[in-house]
């Protein structure tokens, strides 16, 4: 798969972006098609197309920067009173840009943002079965 994405150009300063945070590892900027005003993207500067390719320490840093940005959004003129984090890993999950990025989405009442889902109520035995399978996968690493 071609590793090029527009985010590489933004990180390199070859494409414009409205930057809100910049350090040696992480850049954050406003989404060009915000779902709510102030919608931010937090990206690692090294290319990682998906979570599997992302250094876990850098993943932790993305979350830390996201936390700081969430606080900044609340006290900035964006003036939200809630924040959603969202990360799409894979086409099926809705990923469109194949450079890992954390969406930080400011929320206000009635802003129209939401996730569509059909929640179910499976029996405990089904939950326990899946928990065992996932624990096994974690152990295998
Ligand atoms: P994904 O669906 O991959 O999680 O989200 C990709 C996001 O990148 C979308 O919200 C889209 O609006 C944003 N995006 C795509 N191209 C650009 C761009 O050139 N500049 C900025 N700032 N955001 C972009």
UniProtKB/TrEMBL annotation:
PROSITE patterns on file: HIT_1, HIT_2
Keyword annotations: Methyltransferase, Transferase
Broad class of enzyme this protein falls into: transferase
InterPro entries: Histidine_triad_CS (IPR019808), Histidine_triad_HIT (IPR001310), HIT-like (IPR011146), HIT-like_sf (IPR036265)
Domain HIT: 6-114
Any one GO molecular function term: methyltransferase activity
Span of the annotated motif Histidine triad motif: 99-103
GO biological-process terms attached to the record: methylation
Keyword hit for Endoplasmic reticulum: no
Entry's EC annotation: 2.1.1.-
Name recorded for this polypeptide: HIT family protein
Organism phylogeny: Bacteria, Bacillati, Actinomycetota, Actinomycetes, Mycobacteriales
């Amino acid at each position: 798969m071609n590793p090029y994405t527009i985010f590489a150009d933004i990180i390199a300063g070859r494409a414009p972006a409205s930057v809100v945070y910049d350090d040696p590892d992480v850049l954050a900027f406003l989404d060009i098609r915000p779902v709510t005003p102030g919608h931010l993207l937090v990206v690692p500067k090294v290319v990682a197309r998906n979570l599997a390719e992302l250094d876990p320490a850098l993943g932790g840093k993305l979350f830390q920067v996201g936390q700081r940005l969430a606080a900044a959004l609340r006290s900035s003129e964006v003036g939200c009173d809630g924040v959603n984090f969202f990360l799409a890993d894979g086409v099926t999950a809705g990923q469109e840009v194949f450079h890992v990025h954390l969406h930080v989405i400011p929320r206000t009442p009635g802003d129209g943002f939401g996730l569509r889902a059909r929640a179910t109520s499976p029996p405990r035995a089904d939950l326990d079965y899946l928990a065992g399978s996932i624990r096994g996968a974690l152990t295998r690493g």
